[in-house]
Each structure stands twice: as C-alpha cells, then as structure tokens.
Specification:
Layout: H1 2-23, H2 25-57, H3 75-82, E1 88-92, H4 96-100, H5 110-125, E2 129-133, E3 159-163, E4 168-172, H6 173-176, E5 177-179, H7 181-187, E6 192-195, H8 197-209, E7 215-220, H9 226-238, E8 242-247, E9 259-263, H10 271-282, E10 290-294, H11 303-311, E11 314-316, E12 319-323, E13 335-337, E14 339-340, E15 357-359, E16 364-366, E17 372-378, E18 382-386, E19 408-417, E20 424-430, H12 438-441, H13 448-459, H14 484-514
Parallel strand pairs: 1-2, 7-8, 7-9, 9-10, 10-20
Antiparallel strand pairs: 1-3, 3-4, 5-6, 11-16, 12-18, 13-15, 14-17, 17-19, 19-20
Length: 516
C-alpha cells in the first residue's frame, strides 16, 4: 500500500515541476530561440520559393557555377540577340517536359536540360524573340503552315521551327546536338556528347532575318575532298553564307557569288578551269570578287594555278614552314602561332590579342609588293624546309641554313584592279590546309574561326555581324571543380567554413541571450 501511495504522490510533483519549468526564464528563452529558428527556416524556404519563381520568369537571374559557364549564353549570341530587330518565334516540337527528359536519348539526356536553359535565356535576351513548345499530338494542324518541310522524314518530329513570318527554317536535333555516330550507325540510338543548340538556333535566326546572303562557291573537280573542307564549309553556313559547290570542269562559278574557295587541290587546275576562274575574278571588268586558295601540304606541280597567282604578285613555296622558338611552336616545329600583319582584316575581330595557329603551312612569297601584302606572318626563329629535305638527318646546326631572316608568311593577299582602278578583285592564300580544320576552328583558344569569318565579312563588305560559337560540354567540373586544388577549396567552403559559420552564429546568439 505504501508503494502505491508513493507512486500516486509523485505525479503531482512532476506536473508541478513541468509547470514551473514552462513558466521559468529558461523555458521562455528556449521558446524564443525555437521560434527564431522556425522563422529563419521559414524565411529560407520562402526565399528559395521566390527565387525559383523569379528564375523561371527571368532565366538570366540564374547563377551558373559550372567551370566553363555552360549554362550561360556566349557573348556572340548575346550581342546578336541585342541587335535583333525582327520578330521571330522558336517552336520546339515537343512538350517541355519531354524535351528536358532527352527526347528518348539513350545517353546524354543532361544536354537537353542544358539546351532548355539556353533556349529560355535566348528568349529572355531579346524582346523580338519568343519561345514556344508545341505538342504535335494535341496540335496536329500545326504543320499545315510549313509546307516546305518534309513532315514524312525521320527527323520531322524532332525539329525546332524558326519562324519570322514570311520566312522560316527548320533546325533538326542533329543540328542542335553532337552524338556518337558509330553507336547510332550500329545500334540505331543516340548517345549525345555535346550541345550545339546555341549556334544552330542563331544560324536559323540569321537564315530568316538576312534578306541578301553572300554567296560562296567551293570549287571541286581537282582532287579536293569534302572531308578536308567540310569544317570550313559548315562554319560559313552557320554564319549565314549561301554556300554551294561548283565543279569547274563542267560548270562556271556563280556570277552572284562574291567569294570562291579552292581547298587543297591534289592536282593542277586545267587551263580551261583557270580561264573560268580568271574571268569570274574579272567579272566583266567590274571585279569585286575574292578567291581563297588553300594549297595542299605535299609537293605538287601546279603551273596553271601558279601563273594565275603570279598575276596577283604571289608565289607558294616548295616546302613547309617551321618555327624553333618555343614561345610560338606547340607540339612540333611545324605547328606554331602566327601574328597579324594587316589591320584591314583585324578591325572587326572581337579580340585581336588571340592568335591564329597553323600546321604544315607553306610560305607565301610576295613577288610584287605593289600587289601583294602579308596577312599573317612570323619573324622569330622561322624558316622553310623544301619538300625534298631528308629530315632524318637534320640537327640544330644543319637546320640553321633553312632559316629565313625576314620571316615567313603563312597567309597573304594579292589584288588586281580594273581599268579605271575603281574596283578590285583579290586572291587570298592561306598556306595551311589544317588551319580551318575542325580541330582549330572549334576552340576559342585560337582565332582561326573568328579570323576567317571576319575576313569573309570584310572582303564581301557584309554589314551584318558574324557569329562564331563553340559547342558546350557539361562533363565534369559542375561547380568549377577542375583540379585537386579547386576541389580542396570547394571542400573547405562547404564542409568546414559553412558549418563553422553556423556554429559561430549560434554561439553568439546563445551568449547574448544568456547575458540579458
């Protein structure tokens, strides 16, 4: 009985202690601390919610922490969109959720998330551009407006329509993303490896907003291979040039084209072909044409072509240039950086401090200084090795006899005026067949792509700007972590400094409240 009495007697005492604690100063201070914490958490949640809404409404408010800023528009894109003065609508033929999920991609769906963000940022960058997602299953009549598109093709459901009202064009997913072609060829599914949607859409915008495109003819029929010049041709197309191929053995160059390209012919042009080229340059005495000639990097006999070049004050060397200055050459002495030597073709460059690079380039010899000028040159520890040189027996001492004190010209331009000297035609020679290969024009480390577009814009007197954009990758480094030192820094911030900051703030609040 006593034991039961003790138990029943303890309950009122515990209840009394609880009431007493709840009325105490400690409980009140604790309640205030809990309330402050709850309010603080609520504010964080609210701010996060508001920021999410703002980012959805204004995509440019989103902060990109990736190492290569792959969720940001490149400067060329922003500059172009800022001067866009025609209303254009981008129709993505998919629901946005389906597009962001990768359009049934086997691998690389993350690039579609990246592409979605870039499209929204393009939309936000110009008041003349609008972005819409169209589901063809619920809008089957949408295609009726675009009669020039083959809607029965395999890619018809994977298109972006760039619509400027009277003019429109279609951009396929193959234009917007790079993928593993071997995997697709063998297994029939896509493994995406990079995003090219930014350049593809800008190219589409240029297509529908430029009224008169500059024509460029690529000359064929003398052993040229499309694999060699495909990267150059694609770059010019991406910058809204009207690119065609013309076989000089059977056809004439287009009279309306302002530029022709002869890319690494393996045999000499016939006399008939050279005559066609000469007449095109003369343009019935009106001139105003430009030939870009890129010789092959092996020994060839080209007397017919050489005779034409001589009229423009130039000659191509019978050998390859080299550089022994390690401030300029890269992997070997035949691959080196160049310097600009003609301000007429650098004024439009966005950054003339970035050099161009050449590999296996021939030296362009200026035979008549009144007609020909250097475009690119290098004077530091350079020379030219004839094709018949036995390089296996070369040493540092023997190579000195091949040095050229005045330097070498990897690129030069010659001019020829008409009778009244009012109009000029030009031949530009770029001595390296690799200068405009994909390896050198797909990177912003060198100015090859920008220089080519700027050169073509200048000689064709094209007023609209060129846009050169590189494909974007999101492999690794998502928070700028590209090496061990950066990794340590990020780790210190998020694992050490942030927790210590929170603990310090809590400790300060505790001391201040205790001393009140």
């Amino acid at each position: 009985m006593r034991r039961k009495e003790n138990i029943s007697d303890s309950s009122p005492k515990k209840e009394g202690k609880l009431k007493s604690f709840l009325k105490s100063g400690k409980a009140k201070k604790g309640a205030v601390a809990v309330a402050i914490t709850a309010v603080f958490i609520a504010i964080i949640i609210l701010l996060n919610f508001i920021s999410h809404i703002l980012v959805e409404r204004f995509p440019n408010l989103q902060f990109d922490m990736t190492a290569s800023q792959t969720y940001q528009l490149q400067k060329d894109t922003v500059d172009y969109l800022n001067q866009l003065d025609k209303d254009v609508t981008l129709y993505v033929l998919a629901t946005e959720n389906n597009f962001k999920s990768g359009m049934n991609a086997y691998q690389g769906a993350q690039y579609f998330v990246q592409a979605d963000k870039l499209l929204h940022k393009m939309d936000a960058a110009s008041s003349h551009l609008s972005l819409k997602f169209i589901d063809l299953t619920t809008n089957p009549t949408f295609t009726g407006k675009y009669k020039n598109i083959d809607w029965n093709s395999k890619e018809a459901s994977n298109l972006i329509i760039v619509d400027a009202g009277e003019k429109y064009t279609a951009v396929s997913l193959k234009d917007c993303f790079t993928y593993d072609e071997e995997t697709y060829s063998y297994y029939g599914y896509y493994v995406y490896t990079a995003t090219t949607i930014e350049q593809a859409v800008v190219t589409g915008l240029l297509d529908v907003t430029i009224s008169d495109k500059v024509g460029i003819d690529f000359i064929t029929g003398s052993g040229e291979t499309e694999d060699a010049y495909s990267a150059m041709k694609d770059l010019l197309k991406q910058n809204a040039y009207d690119v065609k191929e013309v076989n000089l053995t059977t056809k004439n160059l287009n009279k309306d084209s302002k530029i022709a390209v002869l890319y690494a012919p393996t045999v000499d042009l016939s006399e008939k072909a050279v005559d066609k080229l000469d007449k095109w340059l003369d343009n019935d005495g009106e001139n105003g044409k430009t030939l870009i000639y890129i010789p092959i990097d092996v020994q060839t006999e080209t007397p017919n072509l050489d005779a034409l070049l001589k009229e423009y004050g130039m000659e191509v060397s019978d050998g390859l240039c080299f550089c022994t200055n390690n401030n300029y050459y890269l992997q070997n002495i035949y691959m080196f950086l160049t310097e600009y030597n003609n301000t007429d073709f650098t004024e439009g460059l966005k950054n003339a401090s970035i050099p161009t690079i050449v590999y296996n380039t021939r030296n362009i010899i200026l035979k008549d200084g009144s007609k020909a000028k250097s475009l690119l040159n290098l004077t530091s520890s350079v020379g030219m090795l004839p094709f018949d040189t036995d390089t296996s027996k070369l040493n540092e001492k023997k190579i000195e006899k091949y040095m050229i004190a005045d330097g070498v010209n990897p690129a030069a331009i010659g001019s020829k005026t008409n009778a009244d000297e009012a109009k000029t035609s030009k031949i530009a020679i770029f001595g390296s067949p690799y200068m405009f290969s994909n390896a050198f024009i797909s990177t912003s480390s060198y100015n090859n792509a920008n220089y080519l577009i700027n050169f073509c814009n200048t000689v064709s007197q094209r007023e609209d700007m060129g846009v050169t954009i590189n494909s974007a990758s999101i492999d690794g480094g998502e928070l700028g972590v590209t090496n061990s030192s950066t990794s340590v820094t990020v780790g210190l911030i998020f694992i050490v400094l942030v927790p210590l900051g929170v603990l310090l703030l809590g400790f300060i609040l505790y001391i201040r409240r205790r001393n009140k």
